[in-house]
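Structure (tokenized):
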């Protein structure tokens, strides 16, 4: 399945190791994740080389082509919020995950079109994603 993984880039990278391991688990399950490079430490360097317009065009193309969007929403990010809204508008299934100790906007948690799950461990987050993807 083609999965758009959304995560914070400029909003903060404190969950970078989580992003990397989460994406690796989905790729090990044979999912295609065009945004997998965003989970890597070098993401900021690569993104700086692109113009804002190029990032926008690339990312909305990937969202249009994906089967579903999974977003880690524990780190506030304008871009992730926009990507979620764009995916919903494109009628894509959306799963949002966040560590149970993180606060998440009520615009996400209150949206009936978004599946919202909290996790306490990486393994629990991966399990939520697998269950979500198995239902599609």
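Design, position by position:
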């Amino acid at each position: 399945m083609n999965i758009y993984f959304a995560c914070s880039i400029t909003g903060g990278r404190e969950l970078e190791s989580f992003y990397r391991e989460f994406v690796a688990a989905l790729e090990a399950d044979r999912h295609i994740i065009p945004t997998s490079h965003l989970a890597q430490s070098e993401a900021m360097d690569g993104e700086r080389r692109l113009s804002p317009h190029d990032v926008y065009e690339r990312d909305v193309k990937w969202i249009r082509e994906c089967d579903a969007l999974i977003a880690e929403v524990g780190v506030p990010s304008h871009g992730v919020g926009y990507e979620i809204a764009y995916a919903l508008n494109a009628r894509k299934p959306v799963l949002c995950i966040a560590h149970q100790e993180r606060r998440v906007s009520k615009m996400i948690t209150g949206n009936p079109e978004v599946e919202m799950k909290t996790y306490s461990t990486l393994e629990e987050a991966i399990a939520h994603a697998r269950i979500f993807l198995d239902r599609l």
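Reviewer-requested clarification: Helices lie at 16-28, 43-48, 52-65, 78-89, 106-109, 122-134. The chain has a mean pLDDT of 94.
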